[in-house]
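Researcher: Last one for today. Full complex below.
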Amino acid sequence: MYQCKDISDEVNNYIDGDLPLPKRIGLFFHLLMCSCCRNYLQQIHSTISIVTVAKPKEQDGTDINALAKQLHTLWQNEDNNQKSH
Amino acid sequence: MKFFSKKNKNDETQLIKQLIAGDEHAFQKVVSDNHNSMLSVARAIVGDAFSDEVVQDAWISAIKALPNFEGRSSFKTWLLHIVSNGAKTRIRRENRIFSLDDGWESETSDKFDHTGHRYDDILPWENATPEAILANDQLQSVIEQTFQQLPAMQRAVLTMYDMKGTGMDEICNILSISSSNVRVLLHRARSTLHHKIEQYQQSEK
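Model: Here's the assembly. Have a good evening.
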């Protein structure tokens, strides 16, 4: 019989479908009976949706426009070299 | 499971044609869409000290290899493989090992009684839709700060799996770790973010 602690440990594997069927069914039955764990599952679902939408980023001081221009110039030079050979 | 849709494939084929034709806007788009996740992978493997250099080298290698891109994986995954290979070569050269993870607090065991049941009630979150979060600068900032404090491996896994839709097998290849390790890192990253959002929700009541 699965408990709240098992839901806490396996919630992400449950959401991502990475559990063997018997365990998945066991956790599902616990969720049917336990409103706390249903709310916890809903909160983790929300966390994933929030991260997907908020898209937090690595701290980075790169000038993206300058880098893109630099790579564009590099590609033009490469392309010209390939055509001249 | 993540899927690479036919529409995405067509968009990507078009984008690569534009790159090969030397379209400057296509270069802007590709760099802007992929630089941050490449940096995330480099930091996870090689750490902060060499990550900028590794990503810079990866971009140059990718541009030079552009005509060889065969579309066997998505373009973003191809870029992540290039940066990952560069980072692994660099870490071998520096004779260093990268740690899988550090700094992790699971849900504390004092939340559960000896039978594994929760002591406290958990209530549904109010106003926790992504749209409401985005309208809330303070919470947005909590998410940003929490993300930046996660260990680099957790950030890389979260970025690839939840934000970029990279498949589990690809992540294992890119980071050279097992799928069970990827799952553990993902669980830790999401749990930390959940914990901070929960704290914020409670402080607002």
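Residues 64-84 of chain A form the longest helix (21 residues). Chain A has a mean pLDDT of 92.
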